[in-house]
């Protein structure tokens, strides 16, 4: 059932009030700043990686092992931060930017996924005992393979 005009207006007012009261929380719910910050971290990590390469090459040319090792560590750290940021950016891009896009089909309420998206069905516990589940799997396989 869609929301009435008055309900939409009240919802917009509540969203504006939330944005004014706690802008960081509101931007987290929107997801836009997550992508922006992940992109920024990835770019900074790329620049640090280039600095690390320069340090490594400087250490090799001047034959100072300490400078070379420092350059390698800068490269390693920046690559780790960059890859983590790129994964975060991909995850933020996969999530809908507007939380209303993840609305439950039977109501007008918004559903915010609490990190359960990546879990598979195997992690969920079934209420049936173990042997009953195994027998059911066996029956399904037998039916699919024509009785064998």
TrEMBL record:
The chain crosses the membrane at residues 42-61, 67-86. Keywords: Membrane, Transmembrane, Transmembrane helix. Residues 89-103 have a biased composition (Low complexity). Residues 89-148 are annotated as: Disordered. It holds the Pfam family DUF3040. The keyword Cytoplasm does not apply. This is DUF3040 domain-containing protein. It comes from Nocardioides marmotae.
